[in-house]
Target: UDP-N-acetylglucosamine 1-carboxyvinyltransferase
Amino acid sequence: MDKIRIVGGHQLNGSLPISGAKNAALPLMIASLLTDETLTLENVPRLRDVAQLTHILSNHGVDYSVNGKRVGEDAMTGQTVHLNASTIVDTTAPYELVSTMRASFWVIGPLLARMGQARVSLPGGCAIGTRPVDFFIDGLRALGADIEIEGGYVNARADKGLIGNRVAFPKVSVGATHVVMMAAALARGETVIENAAREPEIADLAECLIGMGAKIEGAGTETIHIQGVDRLTGHTHRVVPDRIETGTYAMAVAMTGGDVMLEGARADLLESALETLRGTGAEITATNSGIRVKRNGSGIAPVDVRTEPFPGFPTDLQAQFMALMTRAKGTSRITETIFENRFMHVQELARLGADIHLDGQVATVTGVETLNGAPVMATDLRASVSLVIAGLAAQGETTVNRVYHLDRGFERLEEKLRRCGAEIERIAAS
Ligand SMILES: CC(=O)N[C@H]1[C@@H](OP(=O)(O)OP(=O)(O)OC[C@H]2O[C@@H](n3ccc(=O)[nH]c3=O)[C@H](O)[C@@H]2O)O[C@H](CO)[C@@H](O)[C@@H]1O
Ligand SMILES: C=C(OP(=O)(O)O)C(=O)O
Model:
């Protein structure tokens, strides 16, 4: 497997482009299953998860092309994708395809709404907690689906179609909100989702669904009203910029020092993280073309952080922020409230010399003067990139193994960072 080699100690300066959001592109691509007309998505990032989802959608019969050209299985060479699900040939999403990526489970909503049946393997994804699917099942049952779980598969049927209802989630769930919203778009009557996720990717999906003819109000707030329609149509939609990629590079600049323009980034998508970064001493300026992040010679101030559903500090930036705090001038407390097992980076950051004490869901990070390069490995996407951030500031050489995870969610990471002066390269597996 490829590795990333970093020689730390270089400031980041210049500009780098922010890609379309992985976590918006995935549900948007899945929404193509709701219509027999073509859904065109612009600004889709070239990522392993996106490529994997094309396999899953192809298996259901979705015709997929990039920039107008039919592409081979592994080619993600363009940014505008056309998805056409005029004929759904299979309503089963098999284990082999679903087990590597959590979001692939979400096909259950559109398949059930349009075809009246779906058989979907229980999902995989980042190993950051147990990640059950009970909210999905309860939500779809509320819309009238018969669901049973057997042999690792969720078998769902709605022979007479789905019927709108009230769905109140016991806890905020991004995925369950996406799925119930997509299913309800083609249900009969009105659905009201209460305690809905407010993440920007929900509003982005809703905007696209509305463009396809759905009747949705309140996406982006905690109550979403959906009036079901008989059919949805084709549409062209541009994927929202990736707020997690934005926050990641902002933290990298805060870590190394320097001055970088994050082109195309939108500050309104990550206010809480940017405010936290300001607290550490970074200068953040939102402009029409992006977000400028700057830190000069001043040290990094410690800031306590608690992950929360949007608009709070995102769990997907927790690992990166912890990497930054390893060099703060003082002690910070980082509390993870979303996933019960999202601290796998702690042990790896310690290899670089970080001083972190874990107590349940709270990590206490005492900043050290220097980190020292070392071989490291992470078992999930954001943990992997936290090691890249630490490596950029560490003395000497850091090798990040299992780059597979980074490729799931960061488009051209080495290229973007190299453009800003980082000494970073990919070492291809021999
Ligand atoms: C592809 C994608 O967009 N992934 C994001 C999505 O994941 P994902 O949609 O999987 O995360 P959820 O918002 O559903 O998870 C939030 C919490 O709810 C729990 N839960 C969820 C569903 C359920 O049926 N039962 C249940 O108990 C989860 O275990 C977790 O503790 O939101 C997470 C939280 O912002 C992010 O970290 C992920 O990057
Ligand atoms: C946890 C993540 O992804 P997934 O939900 O696909 O595992 C992530 O994007 O950080």
The pocket of phosphoenolpyruvate (ligand 2) is lined by residues 23, 101-103, 125-126, 128, 316, 381-382, 409 (CB under 6 Å). The chain has 14 helices and 25 strands. The two ends are 8 Å apart (CA to CA).
